[in-house]
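Section 3.1: Structural characterization of target chains.
Under the original work plan, the team committed to producing a structural model for every single-chain target entering the pipeline before any wet-lab resources were allocated. The record below documents one such target. The sequence was received from the expression subgroup and is listed exactly as submitted; it comprises 259 residues.
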Amino acid sequence: MAEAAATIQSRSPNEVNMVRKLALSFLITTLILVACGRQVTPDRAGGGIGGLLPGHMLIKYRIAPGAGMDFAHIRYLIVLNTSGNGGSPFANGFNTGFANYSFIFAVGGNQAGFTQVQLFQLIPQPNGQGVPSQRLVPFSPQQVQLQPNSNGQNTEFTLNFDRTLMFGIPTGTPPPAGNTPSPTTSPQSIWNVNFLTTDVNSNPLDALGIGGVNDTSFSLQLPVNDVFDFISQLTVPTGATQASTPAAQLQGGEIVNNP
């Protein structure tokens, strides 16, 4: 799927820095389990969708206990692949042309310390090569709600969003010249997801999976036409490689869907 960590390490520091600046920094900084398509049984007692509106998804994003979230110096990312191709978006996207990146929710990393969420759509180049273009996706307060410190321990935030935001560029809002977005429509019912953390320069620090920031094994598919409540599928395995910065160390979370 993606180039191995050894390939990344074989580059000179200048080359790695240059690619990072032209890629993940460009995408974010410039604008600031496995499941089939079927009913999925919740993995917690009394689980369910509660008051979640139809067509909405709720994501709880959690870091390891200790330091607490640092919205001034760490960017917390939820990366979604809504193309339906089944591929996972990994932290080494700067080395793979951001394969399997469709949308990114970005929280924090603004250096001012205030909590803000932004949504970006990634648009592949016409030849499929190089760094994708991106657009900042507008949304209303009814479409996206962010609850910081949702567990009272400053290690979690909760994001509730309307999945229609992921149906692609709205009519009348053209993509950048020369680019055509990948189709992202409601029939594409299997999404893939990953959680990432980066520093303010968009250098990846951690990701879900045993290999941490270099992991290419994590895979979680979201059957968005079904009710599901995933918790254990997101939990970082014991012994996993983690970021050296405590506020960037991922623990897991929860994803709840109401079709």
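Residues 5-258 form one domain.
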